[in-house]
Amino acid sequence: MTRFNGMAARFALAATLIGAVTITVLSAYVYVGGLGLFRDREFQALQRFTDVAAVRLEENIDHYVRDVRFLARLNETRALLGERVEGAGDPGEQLAGIFLAKGRTRPEYGQVRLLDNEGIELVRIDRGANGLLGRTAQLQDKSGRPYFSAAAHVPAGEVYISDIDLNREEGEIQVPATPVIRIAEPVRSVDGELLGIVVINVHARQLIDLAAETMQAGAVSLVMNQDGDYLAHPDSTLTFGFDLGERHTIDDDIPELSEFVRGRGRSFVGPGTFKAERYLVSARRVDLARDRGIVIAELTPASAATRGFAPIRNNALLVIVPLLLTGAVAMTLIANRFTRPLRQLTVAANAVVSGDEPFSASETKLRSDEVGELARALDDMSERLRAREAEILLSNRELSQFAYIASHDLQQPLRAVRSYLDLLKRRYRDKLDADAKEFIDFAVEGSMHMKRLIDDLLDYSRISNRPLEFEEVDMQVLAEGVASVQAEAVKGYGGEITIGPLPTLEADPVMMERLFAKLIDNAVKYRTEAPPAIRISAERRGADWEFSVQDNGIGIEPGFREQIFKIFSRLHGREVYEGSGIGLSSCRRIVDRHGGAIWVDAVPEGGSAFRFTIPAEAREVST
Amino acid sequence: MMVATNPTPVEVLLIEDNLADIRLTQECLKEAKVATRLTAIRDGTEALAYLRKQRGVTGPPRPDVILLDLGLPGMHGEALLREVKDDADLRKIPVVILTSSSSRADIEEAYGAFANCFITKPVDFDGFLKVVQSIEEFWFTVVKLPRAE
Predict the structure, then answer these.
(1) Is A425 part of a structural domain of the chain?
(2) Over residues A490-516, mean pLDDT
(3) Which residues of A fall within a CB distance of 8 Å from B128?
(4) pLDDT of residue A334
(5) A285, CA 20 to 30 Å: which among A149, A383, A463, B145?
């Protein structure tokens, strides 16, 4: 009894949809929020990590700066640079000793040197291939090197820190490639004149490795200089490209960072794409010189951030899906429960419609809600309908009985009137004067008209009451049979009746005979002076056969074309045409009972075409 | 108009309640060629009693033909017809149903009850006369009827 397009189903579906949408929206909100939390947490971890790395880097560089400052302020340094210093022995020898001592404190120190204001090395210690420091006697002219002039122009009190690049010996890049950073402080006289420069060459590999340490498996660490060139990269061949001839920059990989790297900002946090994968990126700048620095970037895959969230999501789904299913089932049950009385009403109403059962939804009628009200209203309605129907049936039956009895019982007195008028004329012909005979004639004529009226009324009531007997009827044969009765008369007027072709269909043959007889009679009766031409034909129109009985008679005024099918309507004075006016009403009854329609059309050349339809699959219609 | 050549008039029993029709039948038979004696009874029950009484020696003469209307008081014409046709003796008498009805159902029923013929009364006198004359012609002259001994 549950229908899928029924109210209950639709209600359940709607409620389930609303539930599903609500839960989905809420879940999506929570999911996105949760995901955001996880991402924020991941970003924070990344940022902390780069912060720590940067601080470690800065601590190291601070140390180098302190060392350079210490060395630049030594009396020995100043003495060697020409300033008169009391009680000094060999200042070069002493300074080299200090340089060596300082150099030993940090293994990354590659060279510690003092250059004069011309760029000529005065004291130089080097770390050899064996890792040991020693004084180098062979001193070089470094006046042409960029760090000399850069350091020479550093404002008083500041320390020069170079970019990190690959160390060159005699103008050639040292093999193996050794990244190096130079820390230098100029030594000046009291009046500010440049005396010389203390330079520490720091092997920066360790420093870079420190910065490039990754946080966890799957994470990526990148280190680049102020120009975006890689100093550290998972693919080491991409590093120091600017020194080796072909540049590889952050722009190739993470364009999102390009601007940050070249700018002055301290830190960057955000999403980025690296090798076509989504990553969370945290970057941190470490300042070296005034507007130079290096950038440490740490990347973790975006998926890693959500990995922790997956079990929470799955658990949530485990709750939500059964919840939704339960909701749908519950909604279906509730909807069914709500619409059950409606279905009961429908069943009861259908029972009233299809049979003679009274409206039986007694349970529903007792309800105090709207459905109960509806049930009571329907009950009232069905009661009234039944009463009306019974009334109508009764009055219909009475009416047709009345018509039959009236016409039947009218025959007897009519016959008496007529017969005795005849007898009077027959026996007393000689004794009656002209007036008496004329009066008798009028009386006879009146009784004849009465007779026709009664006959037609009887006919009409029979047509209305007799049950139809459907059988296969060859309308061609039937119409020809009917027409043969009138054929002689028509021929007498010089006309003819043409028939067909007509189909075979299901109909009551007796009724069809009467129908054709009346229509042909009509066509003959209302002829003009011209020879009558009566044409009977049929055409299939959709589910119906449309028959036409066409004449070339007097035609019917447009205003009367509907009226003629009403009982007792006559358009012509009795003097011209005979008839009771019931004939076409009988035709309409016959067609109605076959489920068709009848009407009359004017024929342009003059005359009428009576058309009626009979359904090809005819069944008796109760009207 | 009695015909001298037929000394024993044909006995006609008319069972009909309508006086106008009785008189009309009388008038028609008056114009008949064959001598007839018409007995009219206006009630069905009475008519049956009459028919059964004629069996005795003292009873009325047995009719040669019965003209029976269907709409009768007392006993309906059709019931009367069945009684007559159920009676081994009476059933020999030809019964002509002469009624104002032309209903198909009435016709079927009448013949079903062994009516010998069914005639609808015509509306005019000439028609009625023709009918009566036909009855006379056929039943009184053409057909040989059984005779009560």
Answers:
(1) yes
(2) 89
(3) 415, 419
(4) 86
(5) A149
The residues, ordered by sequence, that sit 6+ positions from A425 with a Cβ below 8 Å of its Cβ are A432, A437, A440
> The domain containing residue A433 runs over which residues?
367-465
The predicted pLDDT at position B59 comes to 64
Is A560 within 8 Å of A583 (Cβ atoms)? no
| A415: chain B residues, CB-CB within 8 Å | 20-21, 100, 121-123, 128
Residues on chain A touching B72 (C-beta within 8 angstroms)? none
Rounded Cα distance between A591 and A593, Å, is 5
Q: Which of A338, A268, A337 is nearest to A298 (CA)?
A: A268
User: How confident is the model at residue A182, as a pLDDT?
Assistant: 92
Q: State whether ipTM is beyond 0.90.
A: no
Element (H, E) at A505: strand A504-507
Distances in Å between the Cα of A385 and the Cα atoms of A64, A360, A486 are 110, 14, 48
Three-class HEC string of chain B: CCCCCCCCCEEEEEECCCHHHHHHHHHHHHCCCCCEEEEEECCHHHHHHHHHHCCCCCCCCCCCEEEECCCCCCCCHHHHHHHHHHCCCHHHCCEEEEECCCCHHHHHHHHHCCCCEEEECCCCHHHHHHHHHHHHHHHHHHCCCCCCC
Q: Is residue B122 part of a domain?
A: yes
Residues A540 and A414 in one domain: no
Q: pLDDT tens for residues A361-379?
A: 677 777 788 888 888 888 8
Q: Is the peptide bond before A155 cis (omega within 30 degrees of 0)?
A: no
| CA distance linking residue B143 with residue A547, whole number of Å | 50
* Residues A379 and A510 occupy one common structural domain: no
Sign of the dihedral defined by the CA atoms of residues A82, A88, A93, A95, in that order: negative
Q: What is the arrangement of strands in the sheet containing A230-232, beginning at the earlier edge strand?
A: A230-232, A220-225, A293-301, A277-287, A267-274
Within 8 A by CB and 6+ apart from B33, the residues are B1, B3, B136, B141
Which of A180, A207, A234 terminates a domain? The answer is A207
For residue B116, the domain's CATH number is: 3.40.50.2300
Range of the domain at B122: 17-142
| Structural domain count, chain B | 1
d(CA A243, CA A247): 8
| pLDDT confidence tier of residue A88, bands split at 50, 70 and 90 | low
Measure the CA–CA gap between A293 and A161, rounded to whole angstroms: 9
Is the minimum CB–CB distance between A467 and chain B shorter than 8 Å?
A: no
Which residues of B fall below an 8 Å CB-CB distance to A?
Answer: 18, 20-21, 24, 27, 100-101, 103, 121-126, 128
Least CB–CB distance from A416: residue in B20, B103, B122:
B20
Q: Cα(A467)–Cα(A472) distance, rounded to whole angstroms? A: 16
Domain count of the fold of chain A? 3
Distance from CA of A420 to the nearest CA of B (A): 7
**Whose CA is closest to A99, among A56, A63, A54, A135?**
A135
Residues A494, A580, single domain; the answer is yes
Determine, for residues A422 and B126 on separate chains, whether the beta-carbon distance falls below 8 Å.
Answer: yes
Banded pLDDT at A200 (limits 50, 70, 90): very high
